[in-house]
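Regression report. Comparing outputs from two consecutive submissions.

Submission 1:
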Amino acid sequence: MAIAGGTQTELVLYELRRRGEAGLTPLEALDAVGSFRLAARISDAKALLGPDEEIVTERVPGKTYARYVLRRREGQVSLW
């Protein structure tokens, strides 16, 4: 079920932050965000990330799709 408000890209970022290490697959994105094109939304979302965040693409073993996970960029030290 898609969450009301925001663009699909913003909703994908919201889902990535909410899901943590569980990440997001294309089928889950279709259900949660209503997006048939998760890879395109991930590409758009990368432009919206802060300097300490990155989206990692993980291949799902034995499947033809990927899982996307939002992570803290390694080597980044917070000054706050």
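Submission 2:
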Amino acid sequence: MFGLEQKPKEKFAFDLEVELTKSPAKAKEIFHKIQTRTEELKKLLRDGQSQDDFDQYGILLHGYASLQRVLKKVSNPKQGKKNG
């Protein structure tokens, strides 16, 4: 009444989430690429870089870690509901 009624909301999903749920093989491929790049970044950080490069590599490393968590959540929806 008067526009105050509650409308059922659809579950929000990011474009990447929708795409990866449709093709789990692509999710595994992306996960593998991220693991490889993460290992390379860690190696570069251990070898020692200039301060600017060190900061940039650290930011990239955090981004890759976040993307890995998203991929795990998308690939295991039951586990994502427990944690989130």
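Expected: both submissions complete independently.
Actual: both completed, but the second showed a warning that disappeared on reload.
Relevant detail on submission 2: Residues 26-78 form one domain.
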